[in-house]
Amino acid sequence: MRDVPSQLSRRALMLGPLLLLLPNDAKARGRRRRWGGGSWGGSRSPIALVIGGVLLCAALAVNSVFGRDLPPKGAGNPRATRRTARFNRRGPSPWVFILPLAGIVIGGAYGWATVPPEDTISASFPICAAGARITCVVDGDTFWLDGIKYRISDIDTPEISEPRCAEEKALGEQAKIRLQSLLNAGAFGLKAGLRDEDKYGRKLRDVYRGGRSLGAQLVDEGLAHRWLGFKQSWCG
Question: What is the C-alpha to C-alpha distance for residues 203 and 190, in angstroms, rounded to an integer?
Fold first, then answer.
């Protein structure tokens, strides 16, 4: 039979990650609630995760402190009685506090990472031509905006300049036209990831509108692959 601190530590270890399973779809983000004048969308917002983690930590701490006075299971067992006596002398296990606090930190960081950007960017995007490029679309995952070159970081689209087959070039042209249409459809937001630039000096950003990734939309339409760290073939 395990002692109370061990049981509580296991509970914290199991319950902490459950904070990350809260819904974060576009419908949930659409249900806006105001906290002190600011708006937070969806239940995976940072404030919701932090509050959930604090409540979990408080519940475990109260349970560990006041639960010691309750008769444990197997109280008639001499070994269980000795283990309970040792716990009463030493106090709660430090893991009771460390695990929930770790869940708060991880959950808060994950919450900040998954909050989509605001739709604050709006521009008219032609297809890039020869000469200076200011604001235009290069291909299905690359575009210029105000003289800065961007690469959509969460997808990879078919190559146009050096395709491996005719099918790849045809799909690449479709992806380019579709990206132009999406960027011109209204205001959008850019979200940076762990890397700011790639080796070619292009800014790496995810593109969102209304909380949804435009890159994911291209994937759903069969015009892009999710970027997994390497290129996937478009030929046969």
Answer: 10
Sign of CA dihedral 27, 31, 35, 38: positive
Band (26; pLDDT cuts 50, 70, 90): very low
Q: Structural domain of residue 163, as residue ranges? A: 136-226
Q: How confident is the model at residue 98 (pLDDT cuts 50, 70, 90)?
A: confident
Please report whether residue 105 resides in a domain: yes
Cβ distance 117 to 207 under 8 Å?
A: no
Contact 141, 152 (CB under 8 A): yes
**What domain count does the chain have?**
2
Distance from C-alpha of 155 to C-alpha of 137, rounded to nearest angstrom: 15
CATH code (residue 155): 2.40.50.90
pTM of structure: 0.59
Asked if 191 and 182 count as a contact pair (C-beta separation under 8 A), the reply is no
> Residue 41: pLDDT above 50?
no
Q: Where are the alpha helices (DSSP H) in the chain?
A: 4-15, 26-30, 46-66, 78-90, 95-114, 166-183, 214-220
Q: Of 81-90, 204-213, 224-233, which range is least confident?
A: 81-90
Q: What integer pLDDT is reported at residue 1 of this predicted model?
A: 47
Q: Are residues 47 and 110 in the same domain?
A: yes
Q: Residues 12, 91: one domain? A: yes
Residues 160 and 201 in one domain: yes
Q: Is pLDDT of 70 > 50?
A: no
Give kind and range of the element (H or E) at residue 165. none
